[in-house]
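ok so i was messing around last nite and threw this chain in just to see what happens. nothing serious, just curious
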Amino acid sequence: MSMIALSIPPFPTFIRGGEFTFQKGKSHFSRVFTVFDLLYVTKGTLYMQEDEEKFEVKEGQYVILVPGKRHTGYKGCDEDTTYFWLHFVIPNDEYQVVGTKELDWSYVYKKEPTFTEPGHYQFHIPQYAEVKRREIVEQQLENMLSISDGDAHLPDDYLKQQIYFSEFILQLQKEAFSIPSATEKVCELAMKLIQENYQSQISMTWLKEELNFHPDYITRCMQKTLGISPVQYLTHFRLHQAKRLLVETEYKVSTISREVGIEDVTYFSKLFKKMEGTTPMEYRRLVHRK
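result:
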């Protein structure tokens, strides 16, 4: 399988992204694109073809489609299939498609920085791969795409989006090394604990006792890996579960609030609207209408 080799800096430039669902039997339309198109599947399987090469992209896998080649869906989806898509460019088209190789930082780190010149790195990103740390990758994607086109934005929002995208590219490079850093390990442990106990009252003191790390260190690990704090991740995960319950059940909002660990339904509704831009009931109606 191929890898995309590119020089850093500069990092690739993010253009636009989103999340989409193909219903069962539907396939991607045919086109020749002038930018890179990264497709990451969260549910189902996406059948994509680039010129003559076919990719069966399953849950937790991604493919990077290269500019100038014909991209098409060669088969309809076997089930409803949801995926993130990201369009980006590599400045000056300074990249090569090369063969797969075993990687470590010695391949990436090419030149030390000086007082007047930046360091130089040669990234090798697999064109098609399964990610090993899905929670981290999917959280980074959601951070990046939480800035949607239709919303009002602060002047620095799109700059933050570029930063999120650079962190995502770095994560894909680290994924290719197979060995997670100590920071990522602590982050994964904290995320797992939160996911398993989100219905309970979670505090930094409790995380400290469970992980045997100082709260500040846990926070730094999650900020460095995900870009958000443990408290922010807990809120995100609770709202993610709430959205699922709003779609899959007919529970009252007060019941859903308690189910996800938030006793105050008024606070839950305000938090939901702040994060999602709509009330829980409006969200339910919008999704069912689609």
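not much to say yet. The chain has a mean pLDDT of 90.
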